[in-house]
Write the structure tokens for this entry.
Amino acid sequence: MKLTINGDSKEIKDGIVLSELLIIENVEMPEMVSVQLNDEFLTKEEHAVTVLKAGDEINFLYFMGGGA
Amino acid sequence: MKEFSDEELERYSRHIILQDVGIEGQEKISNSKVLVIGAGGLGSPVALYLAAAGVGEIGIVDGDVVDLSNLQRQVIHATADIGVPKVLSAKAKMEAINPNTKVTVYQKFLDASNILEIVKGYDFVIDGTDNFSAKFLINDACILANVPYSHGGILRFGGQTMTIKPHESACYACVFDSPPPANAIPTCSSAGILGAVAGMLGTIQAAEALKYIVGMGEPLYNRLLTFDAKTMNFRNVNFKKNPKCRVCGGEGIKEIKDYEAVVCEAKL
Amino acid sequence: MSQYIIPQMVYDDLEVFKKNHADFLAGTLDELTFKTMRVPFGVYEQREANTFMVRIKLAGGILTPVQLLSLASLAEKYAHEAIHITTRGGAQLHYVKIEDIISIIETLHSIGLSGRGGGGNTVRNIMADPLAGTAQDEVFDVSPYALALTSKMLEQKDSFALPRKFKITFSGSEADRGYATIHDVGFIAKIQDGIKGFKLFTAGGMGAKSRLGTKLRDFVPDTEVFLYSQAIKQVFDKYGNRKNKHAARLRFLFEDLGLEEFNKLLEVELNDVRAKGDWKMEIEAIERTVGDTTHEPFSVPKNISKWWNRYVYAQKQAGLYGCKVPVHLGDIHFENARALANALLLFGEDVLRFTGDQNLYIRNLTAHQMASLHDILQKFSVEVSKPTLFGDMVACTGAATCQLGIARPRGAVDAIQKRLDKLLDTKDYDLIQGFKIHLSGCPNSCGKHLIGDLGFFGKVQRHEGYSYPAYNVVAGSRTSGDGSVYAQKAGDVAAFHVPAFVEEVLDTWLNHVKAYESFADWIDDGGLAIITEISKKYVDIPSFKEDKNPYFDYDAVELFSSKGRGTGECSAGMYDLIEADKKALKEALEKEEKDFELIRLLSARMLLVTRGEDARDKAGVFKAFKTHFIDTTLLNAYFGTILEGDADEKAIELAEEVMKLYETMDHTLKFAKEKELVPKEEKSVHFKDLSGVACPMNFVKTKMELSKIKSGEILEILLDDGAPIDNVPKSVAGEGHKVEATTKEGNGWRVRIVKK
Ligand SMILES: [Zn+2]
């Protein structure tokens, strides 16, 4: 199925949940990323139970704590 | 209506010529008060540009002294300033650029005991801090005090920023909820930062502050601008205010509490 | 040798100026304040950014070899290596850097020279006959009077804030070589009952409205030279027109008052000057201090005889000689100046003059001494080795640097000289020694065309819609204490054809020269008609398609255009264009089968030149017409609609309306309605003078002014020509304000803005 991940269109196997996608996409420390699915933010608890479907738009928002 | 002197007209001529700024906009800038928290990688360019722009009053907060390792990116400080409190070094540069700007220094780190009092007195706040407990504390304070601010974060080659108008646009906690556990996320001192990236993000924050003050354009409300200087890809991620936000949502927070300090130690 | 005396006040002011100068360099003093300080010291800004020129007063053009030596050093060190002789016989240093100004002024003071009152509305450098003290025909030496009067005038505070410039000169004889008859105040030496004195002329001058001076007194004793000069100056100061600088010179006041009324006012001022005392002038004759007085026998060596015959003249003092040194465009290289000064140091002090024809004269030398200078002088200019015709050509810079200029006369001079130079082997121009060709870029006479034998002044001609540079030709002037005559109009020629025209006129004159005493005599005896005939051959040019060259002026890289030319004193060229269109329009209106399109176009175009517009195609003409005549409400909006769509009989209404409007135009190119408009609305109009303010600060300041007024209110600003007028109205309109009108005012523009 086709997903839009961080703005890029990607072909990903069907029927996966969000937690799997985080692994497939090599997201470092998956528990520490804020995930937006079709404009809604997901809680950490929702990651394992959210099944993705074709056309979903997913944004990974990483913490950036630097500034000095 | 403020009557600008010839010196001021000439100094700010390139602003005044802009149709969106004009005399009226420059007058707003001259009457504005901006608090810059952190006189480091982000605070340096922000403070320089805001002073140059003629912001009437700039508060600058930092408890550190200038260190040799700062100079790779903290462009407001010079080699001769090593060992000098950062706020004093910054004040000197800002006043040198623009004597019309009044600079107030806070030579301390902000915490729950003092932040609200300071933030209240300003029209706009710049987050130029380097740790999550401070960033969330600033978010809380600005939401409580109802002062708009610009969030900024940088890491290695990347940066992110958003502008928050309390209770109207999404806040930092709407997106990131709460600080990551200690050691979970690297910060600059442990992971490194390309100096110029600090400049890129800081100048974006300065521009956001000026946009807000003048009331022009579209500030980064409800969107996070992220960029990666390695690819030079810039992205906007749009979102909405979270009605259930821990900080600005229905219940929201009622008082300021310190977050647990995050120890800067890289795991990666 | 005596010089004029610099008053103490100038030295005192210098101390203040030094401090201001330091502040200005440090950036703590603004440019405008600094300008008001530097101008009294003769320091003026040049067209080139950040360069200045220093004017130096040389009363009567007098300077000593020592002074010339110092000027040479200053030129070498600070001024691009050249000393410039001005049209009033003063000196100028060009391309001076601002940081060097104090050093230059101090050096000048150390040699007794000052720039006080060099320019602006002041008593200008007082001139004297170039041959004063040496001429065979002179009544007495007038040079000491130029010096003494300069000293007196420098002491008077009112000499530096007059309604306009004020020019004084002295001539030693009826030949009037000092041009007393075309000065504000002119003295011609005369002895009556054994007493030295002068014939006094006043209110003469050249310009768009030239006037020959009126003889005010047949005899004024020499002790009263200051008395009269000061009294006339006071009349001018009190009653001169300060509002309109184009009608400010004394001659306009004199015309307004008439001789009788002027004399009445003068009597009052004469009494006033007498009452103040100290009006009698002490005169110290100039003596030769050093020099050879033994006159050995001398015969002119063959190799220098041509030069000797052309330029050396025998003085009234037996055995002494003078010499004219033609200096190309008035510029002397410092090395030449130094070489000459060194040679002259041995021969005395009173051996030099700078003159108003921008040449240098040497005097009071024995024949041997003069001959010894030959080699040095050859280096001064190529003209030294040519017939006098070459060196005597005078030209202003014209459109090359002057905003009023129409044509570029210096380029024309080069072209004439090039052409004549090739003919030197076949034509003997020494037969017409002293023949003067003078060219001005516009009717303003800076090139003194009215006092040339053959004179030219720039005008605009049009051929098939394209403008091209051309000249009015004038001929046959005379100067004399008993009736000077300006050169008379003889015809028109295209700038492109000027060299060929000059050649043919000279050929014709060479054929007649033996039969007449002077060129002016020939002009009066049928010569004028002959020149007019010749000029007809040289006025037309090929079409733009056939040959573009005649459409470019000499040394010009851009196509000739009258756009942006000033409408100041220099409007005469504009009238030619208007009249040409008016004539064509009348012809078109009289035709049985009327060409409405042509009538419409001519009507719209006719008055555009008065607004500095030079549109070439129909669309451009219509657009400009709407901007300047409809949008400004000079004409009813209805007439704008006539320009829409196809032309029909309504074009006739437009033509009639435009011609009516033209009839209400005054000599400042303003229409009657404009004058009504201005005062009526001035009350509610906000105003800011932004002339002299560069881009983009003029726009910034405009925005500042607009921010102070309410929506719908009017702001009028004055802008400079060039980038300011090109950019600011556009930017203002871009912000949504309405630019109602832009009208030429002086050298700049008045822009009327309605705040959005
Ligand atoms: Zn929130």
The pocket of zinc ion is lined by residues B 170-171, 173-174, 242, 245, 247-248 (CB under 6 Å). The interface with chain B takes residues 30, 696-697, 699-701, 703-704, 706-708, 731, 734-735 of chain C (CB under 8 Å).
